[in-house]
Design a protein that fits this description.
SH3 type barrels; alpha+beta; 18% strand; binds zinc ion; single chain; Arc Repressor Mutant, subunit A; 219 residues; two-stranded antiparallel ribbon; 3 domains; six-stranded antiparallel sheet
Length: 219
């Protein structure tokens, strides 16, 4: 694995460790995946390159390190979404492929993927995907392949690609109703309540939940 790739992986680990409230150098170097990529000298080189600072046992991203980590995390989590949900890859092959795939993504390709899969707010593990320019701009040349369900018009049908809810009770409730990736639903009415038709049944769903369901329009 190239040095740049190793640096990128370490930046990603620092970012995700921080999400879990950890910033210890010793703990970072104990992570199995980090051991494979890096040792203390990698961290020293990253300090010299101005990507991180290390003070006693605490590692902190510099502004440069922060934006590189942000981009790397974004690519990684977008790759995960694309591989699991859109290409229907199983968890094990996804883990193997997401890491190598993300390093080949140029910023332009990352934006196209993000747009195609509807600017997902989280990865399949429920971790936030940092937003890119594509997520912030109101118009785009590419029309998304996958959209939040609330974008569909009355009478339109969509196949559920993924659901982004972090609340397990919500996901459980939805799956009891048969609302799972792969199911096909039709928008029956949008106002005053959002009503879906799923097979023979119609069900009213809270709009917050509707926005967490991402679908691909089927004709
Ligand atoms: Zn993930
Ligand atoms: Zn986006």
């Amino acid at each position: 694995m190239g040095q740049d790739t190793a640096v990128e992986e370490v930046l990603e680990f620092i970012w995700s460790e921080r999400e879990s409230g950890r910033s210890s150098v010793a703990a970072l170097l104990e992570i199995e995946e980090v051991k494979k990529e890096a040792d203390r000298s990698t961290l020293d080189a990253m300090c010299a390159d101005g990507l991180i600072t290390v003070e006693s046992d605490t590692v902190t991203l510099t502004n440069t390190g922060e934006s590189l980590a942000r981009e790397a995390i974004r690519r990684h989590r977008l790759a995960e979404r694309l591989l699991t949900e859109v290409l229907a890859m199983d968890e094990e092959s996804m883990e193997k492929n997401a890491c190598s795939f993300e390093h080949t993504l140029t910023p332009e390709v990352a934006e196209s993927i993000c747009t195609l899969i509807g600017h997902p707010p989280t990865c399949p593990h429920g971790l936030p995907i940092p937003k890119g320019n594509c997520c912030l701009s109101t118009r785009s040349e590419i029309s998304p392949l996958v959209n939040p369900l609330d974008r569909l018009k009355v009478g339109e049908t969509g196949r559920i690609i993924f659901i982004v809810s972090k609340q397990h009770t919500r996901l459980d409730k939805l799956s009891t109703l048969g609302i799972v990736p792969g199911s096909v639903v039709r928008v029956h009415q949008k106002r005053p309540a959002f009503v879906l038709q799923h097979g023979e049944t119609t069900l009213a769903l809270d709009i917050d939940i509707v926005k967490e369901i991402y679908v691909k329009t089927v004709n």
